[in-house]
Protein: G3E family GTPase
Organism: Bosea psychrotolerans
Amino acid sequence: MPVPILLVAGFLGAGKTTVVNHILAHAGGRRIAAVVNDFGAINIDAELIAGASDGVVSLANGCICCSLEGDLLRTLATILRRKPRPDAILIETSGVADPEDIVRNLLDPVTFQEAPLETVLCVVDATMAPAGLDDPLLRAQLRAATMVALSKVDLVDAAQRQRVRDAVAAIRPGLLQIEAPHGQVPLELVFPDSPDRPPVPRPPGSRRPSFERFESLSWTSDKPVSLPRLQQAIARLAPKLARAKGLFETVEQPGRQFLFQLAGGRATLVPAGAPASGLPRARIVFIAELAALSAAEIAAVMDGCVAEGAD
């Protein structure tokens, strides 16, 4: 199964390592491999440390940390060979790095097949003056992002938070912004549930809450979909979505599975190997703000994607 990647970018002192610490300490049962710049900055409670060897710190909750040195793709290949394999990979970039080159490498078709880039999270310091966003490097980090986490929000008032939000929106309109006090980034957003997992039976129309601002809803079909119809349906739903992720077969290319992702207003579609047996032939997870979408609205739009007469 592919191992999703979270890329964490942001200016010097923005709070990237605080976000990394929070994710590793609250992995929620996921085995996360973190590739970081500075081991010394990782502040995990002593009881979580299981051991350290060969430049890798192992944590008792199944996570590991290794140093971001040398060739990134070679480091990823080493991580992917570990037993047991991680459930996800987190990469923290340097505060003086433009993530564009890293994103380009991670979007290489061979790499993406095994370790797809799931989220590019840019951490922005809410205490900065909005004019600070004029820095060319920070603007480049925002252009690469699919989501923004506002750090240090507990240190400023609502008016200052809104000023920074407005400044970010002026650079990247429509980009999802979340508040992350003390690095508290919800894993449900940065690592959405994989549609590869068998669906959990629920009463019709029921919702599975993600956290207090967002919720997750799913749609499945036992028949393949028409790709043009699917594209039209996603375009209709996109204005109300924070994220979407799915796996499906199409009537245009039977027997092939595709991975679809929508984040930060960007949609990607890549081949994902042979369809899994025993699972619906189309399954998509939608994440939206509370009450922005209903299961009935999603079904009304998505059911039209199933091609008539499809087997």
